[in-house]
Amino acid sequence: MKYSSLLGHTYDALHEFFLTGKPADAILDRFFRSKEYLGSRDRRFIAETAYGLLRNLRLNKEIVSRIVGRRYAEIGEEGKLRLAILAYAVVLARHVDAVGGEIEEFVKGIISPDDLGRVVKGIPDFRVDESDDRFSDPGVRYSFPDWMVERLIVEYGPTDAVRLFQSLNEPAPLTIRANLLKVTREECQNHLSAENVKTELTASSPLGLRIAKRLNIFQLKAFREGYFEVQDEGSQLLPLLIDPKPTAKVLDACAGAGGKTLELAVLMKNRGEILAADVHERRLDELRKRSRRAGVHNIRTKVIDLLEDDLSVIDPVFDIVLVDAPCSGVGTIRSESRHEMDSD
């Protein structure tokens, strides 16, 4: 696909993200499903550019605004987004050494060819050198909000806070949980190996496998067969600590798409009863699909706001109540990148 078309597709996906505020991974997943003509390399470029831009958004905007100067305020939100996409795409595609017709087409009418040339030639690598005084503000350099930077520096000190910022800007490892209703962890590992996917055992979770190479795991036969679910290792540990009995009656009060809910079902050996509650129907729809694929039968779902709605519509007594309540949302800062749709 032409370079300008890839940039345009990336803009369309990110424009919906900024317009609606919906999760980026959900938008990209739907976007790719609606664009079946996109090849694996096209999807990789779009996903890497989109997620990379979101991880480095503040730094990206600062770099472009300094290059363009006072004209940045006159460009408008559409133009700023297009320039931000272009800037990050240039970092990814170092073979773009000069302003060509395709790039000009992508930002036509937004900035002059001279300014465009300055943008393309003036963009540094996003791994900004620590000695570069132009980006001494850690909030800009690592694209974190000022309030978070200030708080983390107070709590951890400047040196450890910077290490934390650097770590959070690295793509999160891709971790999966073997579905013990269908396979052991070793059997899951063997199935993945048969599909040329290398894995290693997680250090803390006895159910987890870590995949070294990014790939579109949703196309794997092992995934379609329900042999595993994508789940961070830390998330896998909580149900293990709860250790529910097979006869338990469980309320997962903030189930979302059900990663922990499904693991509870596995630990309960598909027995007992789990009520998965959430305020979003869309998330519970995803849980229902995952349950069918995993072969789980002991989960009921209920769309309900447990703080506002009439609770008489659910049972009053449970053996276990899990409340993994969403709070600031900062836990997604690193994990968002793990959804990149890489495949060869």
> What is the rounded distance between the termini?
16 Å
- Could you tell me the radius of gyration in angstroms? 23 Å
Reported for the largest beta sheet, the result is:
4 strands, antiparallel
Query: What fraction of the residues are assigned to beta strands by DSSP?
Result: 5-15%
Contiguous helical run count: 16
List the strand order in the largest sheet. Answer: 2-3-1-4
Overall CATH architecture of the largest domain: Orthogonal Bundle
- The succession of helices and strands, N to C, reads HHHHHHHHHHEHEEHEHEHEHEEH
Low-confidence stretches: 337-344
**How is the CATH topology of the largest domain named?**
N-utilizing Substance Protein B Homolog, Chain A
> How many domains, as an integer?
3
Overall helicity: 40-55%
Task: Write down the CATH class of the largest domain.
Answer: Mainly Alpha
Choose one word for the global shape.
Answer: globular
Specify the structural class. Answer: alpha/beta
Mean pLDDT: 85
Overall number of strands: 8
Describe this entry's structure for a reader:
With 344 residues, the protein is an alpha/beta fold. It has three domains: 3-126, Orthogonal Bundle (N-utilizing Substance Protein B Homolog, Chain A); 174-234 and 332-339, 2-Layer Sandwich (Alpha-Beta Plaits), CATH 3.30.70.1170; 238-322, Vaccinia Virus protein VP39 (Rossmann fold). It contains 16 helices and eight strands. The strands form two sheets. It has a four-stranded antiparallel sheet with strand order 2-3-1-4, covered by helices on one side. The protein has a four-stranded parallel sheet with strand order 7-6-5-8, with helices on one face. The radius of gyration is 23 Å and the shape is globular.
